[in-house]
Each structure stands twice: as structure tokens, then as C-alpha cells.
Amino acid sequence: MRGESLINSIVARSLDEIRFWSRIMKEHALFLSLGFTYEQKQLIDEANQFITIFERIEEKLTRYTVNSDIRQIQAFNAEVYQAAVAIWNYKRKVLGLTLRCEIRSNNYPLLIDHISREAAYFANRLKELNEGKLAPEPDAIIEENVFFLRIMADHAKFIGHLLDPSERKLVAQAREFSHDFDQLLFQAVDLDSMQPQSETIPLLDQFLDQNRVSVTSLRDFKKTARELIEECRIKSNIHPLLADHTFREAERFLEIIDLFEASLKKA
Ligand SMILES: [Fe+2]
Ligand SMILES: [Fe+2]
Fold it and tell me: pTM of this prediction?
């Protein structure tokens, strides 16, 4: 890629990552706050502070466009990076309190770990963009899929465990998705350990195709669940925003799969 178009792409990609993940981070803080009990006021206050921090970032984002100066974007990336690291620290603190049984809340430990992984991913993306890394390398394709497949497998488990146990059909469907994604994740881990020899275009292409099929059907399942929850047609402990949140993350994974597919075609 020529110098100028790489810079433009870095600016556009930075704004896109911040737009997507800042909203996600804000919602994580909301979900955590809703899961705490009334006496965990300090932790609720901290969660609310993160909601404000990411709302401010979303406001600031509107000042920039794809034509903004790269130096301004790099400074903004660095600022958002600090916020992502701060919320990661907070989530890990809450995980520690939970695992040591110093607090009891309605947030599953795996959910807290999951959202901290998403914060780490976001922080890392910003760091990479500021180092000028945009194009996905073949080894990054495998790693990125390992990350997202695990996220999808977790989502299936959360949905299964937050649905009312009397919703037997939906619980069984969620369990099937969980199994499907655990299998895909293991396949990805195997491919990962076979690196760099496994980085062939036919293998990566087939890997992406298989992942796309499963993510598309999980995305559709989440979409249906979201509608059923919004219309109060099913019994669950799932906040409608959480249903929408996991749906958007599946859409994001599909977009990334397409991006990788396009980069393989160019290779
Ligand atoms: Fe999330
Ligand atoms: Fe997630």
C-alpha cells in the first residue's frame, strides 16, 4: 500500500474501531453495574464513571473524519487506549473479588473475564494502529479467529445460562451453538499450533468459510432471541441491550472474516 493510502486507511480504521468498541465498553460498564447488589455501591459508582468516560469519547469521535490529521488521530488513539486499559483493570479487579468470594453479584466470572478480554483486544488494536499495522497477516488471521471464536462460544454459554430453565428448546439450541463453537475454537487452536506451515491460502480460505457458516447462524439466533426478549415473548434474565450487544459482536466478527477473505484474494 502506498504511504498516503496507508495513512488514510489507518485513520478510517481507527475511527471505526473506536466507534464500535467504545459503545461496547460503555455497555459492559452498564451490565456490570446492573449485576451488582445494592451494597456494592462503590463498584457501581466506578462502573458509572466508565459510562461517562466512554460517552465523552463517543462525543469526541464526532469531531474527527476520515480526512483528519493522522497525528490528531494517533493522539486520540492513545487517549482511548488509556481508557480501555483502565476499564480492563477495573474488570480484572472485579474478577478477583468475585473469584475470592469477597463479593457476590449476578455477574458470572466467565462474563467478567470475557469482557476484560474484549477490553484487552480493543486496547491492543489501538496500539497496533498507532504502530502503523493495518493489514492482517496470515498468522493474525488465525489468532484473530481464535479470539472471536472463543467470544462466540462464550456468548452461546451466557445465553444458555441466562435463559429461564423452562425455555427448554432455546436452552438446548444455545447448548448446541456452544458445542459447535467449542469445536471450531479447537480447530483454530490446532491450526495455530501448526503455524507457520498451516498458513496456506487454501487452508485459511476453508477455515474462514467454515467459521462464516457458523457465525452467520449464531448471528441469526441472537437476532431472533433479541426480538423475542424485546417483545417479552420468552422468559429470561437477559437485558434486551445485552441481546443486541452480542448480536453486534457477531456482526463485527462477520465483517472481519470478510476483510480477511478479501486480503487472501489479494495475496
Ligand atoms: Fe461485549
Ligand atoms: Fe462479547
Answer: 0.95
